[in-house]
């Protein structure tokens, strides 16, 4: 397709620039986002034509920033199942409930989407070396997609992150380093080495691909629900690019005329002790911040991002949506993981947090009996396993042994 | 749909029986398979209508044995990506290469398919308790689908199987037991307890669902390749129900008139030391068996099935297809896993064995330069991780640390 009219637009100052592969920080400090010529797209693409396309996130090619189809780096990402939870609907005071099973992506997490797009752009730009600061799943996704593309990957991961996710990076051949610090410390190392190492930083909101790839979660949700969006999306929030991306998806679908009616209210879930979105919304609403920071040490999950790259943009998006944010204690998240397991779903801590948020929203009355709700299970439970935490079932030799237990 | 004309047919003596939920062993010792009224299906379903359906294995509902749609137990299984391996095609003396990414199923393995069908049939039959002997992935799949259906699951797993796969069973709430023995010892325990415990044995070829669910791999392959099958399928073989199921799929598609031309040749890959398919084919061809049994101890993977429930059926299917079988040393399988990792694919030992089989088939000349080949990556690498085997990347505090490494 003709990409001449794809541009960049600043989400803060609205400055518009021609599209090129670049750092997405505007001179004003805002984040640049990709701006499509929706009129042109509407003239080329219909909902009906989409049905005929292969079920992957690349079915939305016209709404993705890659210009050369042969630069697309795909491992089979997107079009993850949207699972209706009939039994839970009967028990909870909401109308409809789904789980979006993002753990069924090729790298076992939703990060596959962003990196399929981001690595495709790297390939298109001729980049040979990329680095990412990550709590794990983004690093694994960069590692896999870079391997597919023949690009050297450098992963910098806080040292307490799940060992299996670290293992995944080395399995895919990434140069993998543990960092004595948090994700922003890992990012500082990459920035410090940028000139000398010549790597491109593909961290959150640093380049055009990841938000656009994440956006496909929102596009899919609309298509899978027959172009009728849910009332509420509960989403585990770290850097917030999923929120930014999905909101962008909904606005683009409105502009295309493919959806109407109100857009979903976002509920950002975080773990107590690392809750910048919760605190930020409270501050903007001039209510006292409820931060439990210092009181407890948040677990090393994708939600542990104390300094999101563009918190303002996340906050304003959640506000625009009529949404909210909630911080949950670690025990509630663990208990939610067990609940989802008992329903047959392998839930990461992040995915489990959305279930905990659902229960909290029902309890508080924020969720209404008329609401349809989608939870995002962003990653697979097994990626977070540690041998220390494994159960040890009984060993038997015979049925007599079984009976004697 | 009207299921009155669905029957059971013995794959050995051709006896035909009305369909009912039952043990699939015929009085002659052969295996009963589900026999559809293909004429009736052909009058109701077209390839063109399929395109409009949701991408899951249940798009082939008419070719699956569940009669009541509201008994379908689904977690989002099937329609896994079929990944073209362009770079590898350039390097290997074959025409085309794909990897079918079965690890992207809801339970991280191809076993999701068989258990979605099997547990649906349990639900339809009103069964409340099911047991399975398994090297791990089947147990995890039973656990998940039974949880979804509210059925009690009992998993019996050889004690040396991967701890994370065992963990998965307990995460899904299955009653999980380690067995001091191999998979057939686990099966013997279930059979011994059958009357007293009242559980249904959903082991390989014991009930109608699992072969039919696995069959959808073959249906999908045909549809994803535009109703043109590959020349060769390389498949990791344990009990062999995948081979039986896919062959059944191809014959049904022929009967529907949806495909023509030769069917794929199957290559069964096994690990040296547990190679009943390799030895069985050699014995039938009256060449000296090449068994390395006793010489090495096979690893606890899904390929370790010393006594397949119906070896004759597997052997005759492979022969009919013009296929072969190969046993590979553990080191070649490990090396193949690293090769697939370096291509961005998280390969289980079973999936890696197909890559090792591919290389062996190229070396021996059994694979031809004109062949198109599909490998099945049946499960996700991380499920087999052990903490003992984890790499330990270097820990750094700063970019100066990085430079000093």
From TrEMBL, chains A, B:
It comes from the Bacteria. Its cofactor is pyridoxal 5'-phosphate. The keyword Transferase does not apply. Keywords: Lyase, Pyridoxal phosphate. It holds the Pfam family PALP. This is Threonine synthase. Residues 73-378 form the Tryptophan synthase beta chain-like PALP domain. It comes from Paenibacillus aestuarii. Its EC number is 4.2.3.1. The keyword Phosphoprotein does not apply. One of its GO terms (molecular function) is threonine synthase activity.
């Amino acid at each position: 397709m003709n990409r001449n009219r794809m541009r960049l637009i600043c989400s803060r100052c609205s400055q518009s620039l021609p599209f090129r592969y670049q750092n997405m920080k505007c001179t004003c400090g805002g984040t640049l986002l990709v701006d499509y010529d929706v009129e042109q797209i509407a003239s080329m693409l219909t909902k009906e034509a989409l049905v005929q396309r292969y079920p992957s996130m690349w079915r939305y090619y016209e709404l993705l920033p890659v210009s050369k189809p042969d630069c697309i780096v795909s491992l089979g990402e997107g079009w993850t199942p949207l699972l209706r939870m009939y039994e839970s609907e009967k028990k909870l005071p909401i109308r409809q409930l789904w789980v979006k099973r993002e753990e069924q992506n090729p790298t076992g997490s939703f990060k596959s989407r962003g990196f399929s797009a981001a690595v495709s752009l790297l390939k298109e730009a001729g980049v040979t070396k990329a680095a990412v600061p990550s709590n794990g799943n983004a690093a694994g996704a960069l590692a896999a997609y870079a391997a597919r593309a023949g690009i050297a990957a450098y992963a910098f991961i806080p040292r307490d992150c799940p060992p299996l996710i670290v293992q995944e990076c080395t399995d895919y051949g990434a140069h993998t380093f543990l960092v004595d610090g948090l994700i922003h410390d890992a990012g500082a190392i990459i920035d410090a080495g940028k000139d000398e190492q010549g790597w491109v930083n593909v961290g959150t909101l640093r380049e055009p691909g990841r938000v656009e790839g994440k956006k496909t979660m929102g596009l899919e949700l609309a298509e899978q629900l027959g172009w009728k969006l849910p009332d509420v999306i509960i989403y585990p929030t770290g850097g917030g690019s999923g929120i930014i991306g999905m909101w962008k998806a909904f606005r683009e679908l409105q502009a295309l005329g493919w959806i109407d009616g109100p857009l979903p209210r976002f509920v950002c879930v975080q773990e107590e002790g690392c809750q910048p979105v919760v605190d930020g919304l409270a501050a903007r609403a001039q209510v006292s911040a409820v931060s439990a920071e210092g009181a407890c040490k948040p677990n090393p999950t994708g939600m542990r991002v104390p300094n999101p790259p563009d918190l303002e943009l996340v906050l304003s998006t959640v506000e625009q949506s009529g949404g909210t944010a909630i911080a949950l204690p670690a025990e509630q998240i663990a208990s939610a993981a067990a609940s989802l397991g008992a329903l047959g779903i392998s839930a990461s801590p992040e995915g489990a947090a959305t279930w905990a948020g659902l229960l909290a929203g029902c309890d508080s009355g924020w969720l209404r009996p008329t609401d349809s709700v989608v939870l995002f299970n962003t990653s697979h439970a097994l990626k977070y396993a540690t041998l220390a935490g494994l159960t040890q079932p009984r060993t038997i030799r015979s049925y007599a042994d079984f009976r004697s237990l």
